[in-house]
Amino acid sequence: MAEVLNIHDNFAKGEIRHDVIEHQLEHPEHPVVVDCGVNVGITIRWWHYLNHNATVFGIDMMAEAHAFTCKRIGEPNDWYIPITCALSASDGKALSISFDDPLSGENSVATRQRTHTRTVATATLDASLAEYGLERIDVLKMDIEGSGAEALKGAPQTLRKTRFVIFETHGRKEISGASDILHAAGFELIDLRNRTLIYEKRTSVA
Question: What SUPFAM superfamilies would the database entry show (predicted)?
Answer without folding.
Answer: S-adenosyl-L-methionine-dependent methyltransferases
